[in-house]
Design a protein that fits this description.
CATH superfamily of the largest domain in chain A: CV3147-like domain
InterPro entries (chains A, B): S-Me-THD-like_C, S-Me-THD_C_sf, S-Me-THD_N, S-Me-THD_N_sf
Strand order of the largest sheet of chain A: 15-14-13-12-11-17-16
Pfam families (chains A, B): S-Me-THD_C (PF20906), S-Me-THD_N (PF06032)
Largest interface: A-B, 20 and 21 residues
Protein name (chains A, B): DUF917 domain-containing protein
Number of domains of chain A: 2
Oligomer: homodimer
Structural class of chain A: alpha+beta
Number of strands of chain A: 17
């Protein structure tokens, strides 16, 4: 049933989205403030499950693109992602019937809510990444045949770019990244225009609800003095993600980070307090791979998250610091993200990693 | 009167356009071959003077954008600039009534002729640069208030970008350059959609005819064993450019050239055969400044050209080589290119040169 998102759910949703960001995607906090301001002004947000969308409805994915660190310096006025949607609608000659998140992890959990609140359009509870990923072609929509373009890209100065690369979503990302960099490092996009039928076939369902549930679990465990990691694992077991597991608890002993081509790349080492075990994390915005010695422990698209050891609050790759006491918590991805087609687009080799994907639940069991 | 461009005029037009390229703009030869092939297939090209365009006609500027050296490696199929026009027409919801060259110098003298031949649209005899310039905001259209965007950018793969930066033509150039680089270094554009009334007010009139006349003068002087430089100066005296002058004859004694940010920048030194005088040329794609010792001899927007000492055939900045025997020939620009508004956009300081513009005819007289 279409349902309204209560304002009081926003903090839990934001925390859960930060967790699904897998270290990247940007802090949802600024987005939370913008959405809350809309709801306080009396706006409402209606959520639809994918199977509640009409087959012939026009659904558009909404997001910001670029460096999350820049968003903090150039806080959006709030209208930029709406302008992107309107530009795309004009180009298509048709109004959207609903919007859908491109990415349920990080700040992009909030941008579509902002658009929903400002336009009155319902938002589909689902997304195209099931987590955060760094590039626009890394979406299940595209994996299963939807063209990402035409895409509309807008900035705070009212400048607009419309790109059409036919079915070539890699080229869309390639051009859009260049425009975003020249727009000042962050822009707002409307992309993957698709039918309701395509949403049902290609979206990862229920990911906003999942973020909300995970955020709530962390908060309640904290309030009730229970182990948040056990609670997270218990919650995940009931979802299409099925699997959550504490890989290691310890201290951050090394972080190496560099910015290149609009991405943050680097690695971090986390050692147990007795120094007996050390896990190395490799990241490109998001954590992509966890290894111990040469042995693979988890790899994208499965989620590798770094959480505060006490509170289970998520820590982004930018916020990793020497000496932090953390727990590495891994999460399995839904089946729709694990097909050969999906792994070709966002499996380890799509990130240039020399590893084959193995389900994280198997890697953990081997151990 | 609207008139047909005879196929036999193409070589003269191309040579004159190379001269007006002022060392840049790319060799028109490939464009000439493409246009000739269209005319040989039976297409015709109608030329209109600016005052023959209806005031409310929609006129669109047509060009390639990017590195001329790449065009030689990625020879256009011929349809790319037409696709750019069609994309812009779809975006505007209106068909163009005529096209106009963005740039009368270099290869861009030929691209709009190709579009005219392929579409049957008339081409306005005039342009927005009166020569070749390296950037899209450097057009009299924009100087006198026409917005360059929306602009359509297409490549040979059918990828399209539509940019809208309102009246901000610098930002249009900034984003379009990034897209062009990622499209492989060359792309085809349709820009500065404007009314016939705007064409009359902002275009430099008669520049295709001028190129044709200059090319013919060079050819006839060659055939008739007359001094081509005197003939060029005589021809220019009858036009709105008014002034052409041989600055120096000598040998290329030094060339320094580097590629950066999608442009070719550098300098060349040309010394008289007795070594008594040396002129230094500074270029960014086009020659921008000529100095002797510290003294200014000519500076953009006036045209500085390097011609073969014997034939007066134009030599591009890429083709400059040690030991070439050349003549530096300077040309004054029309009044419409010399107003304070125009000099703010393509005067010396717009190129980062530490010089104030002085009319070339005065600089030569001072000497």
């Amino acid at each position: 049933m279409p349902r309204e998102l209560p304002i009081d759910d926003l903090p839990d949703l934001a925390r859960g989205a930060a967790l699904l960001g897998a270290g990247g995607g940007g802090d949802p906090y600024i987005g939370l403030l913008l959405v809350r301001a809309e709801l306080e002004r009396g706006a409402t947000i209606t959520l639809l499950d994918p199977d509640e969308v009409d087959d012939d409805a026009l659904v558009v994915a909404s997001a910001f693109m670029g460096a999350p660190t820049v968003v903090i310096e150039k806080i959006p006025g709030g209208d930029e992602p709406v302008q992107a949607l309107r530009s795309l609608e004009r180009h298509l000659g048709r109004a959207a019937d609903a919007i859908i998140p491109m990415e349920c992890g990080g700040l992009n959990s909030m941008i579509p809510l902002l658009v929903a609140a400002r336009t009155g359009l319902p938002m589909v509870d689902g997304d195209g990444m099931g987590r955060a990923f760094p590039e626009l072609q890394m979406e299940t929509f595209g994996v299963y045949g939807v063209s990402g373009s035409p895409i509309a890209i807008c900035n705070e100065r009212g400048h607009t770019a419309l790109l059409d690369t036919g079915p070539d979503n890699h080229s869309m990302e390639w051009y859009a990244r260049a425009v975003t960099v020249r727009m000042g490092g962050v822009a707002y996009i409307a992309e993957y225009p698709m039918t309701g039928a395509q949403v049902k076939r290609t979206a990862i369902p229920g990911t906003s609800s999942l973020a909300l549930a995970l955020g709530r679990v962390i908060r309640l465990a904290h309030d009730e003095h229970r182990d948040p990691f056990e609670a997270l694992a218990g919650c995940l077991a009931t979802t299409i993600y099925r699997f959550g597991h504490s890989l290691l608890e310890g201290k951050v002993v090394d972080v190496e980070r560099r910015s290149a081509d609009g991405f943050v790349r680097g690695s971090a080492r986390i050692a147990t307090f007795d120094g007996g075990r050390t896990v190395e994390l490799t990241f490109q915005n998001e954590h992509l791979m966890a290894r111990e010695g040469g042995r693979l422990l988890a790899v994208a698209p499965d989620l590798i998250t770094v959480l505060d050891a006490e509170t289970a609050f998520p820590i982004t790759t930018e916020a990793l610091r020497y000496g932090q006491r953390v727990r590495i918590f891994v999460i399995g991805t839904p089946e729709i993200m694990r097909t050969p087609e999906a792994l070709a687009v966002f499996g380890p080799r799509a990130f240039g990693l020399d590893a084959d994907w193995t389900p994280v639940e198997e890697l953990v069991r081997i151990r």
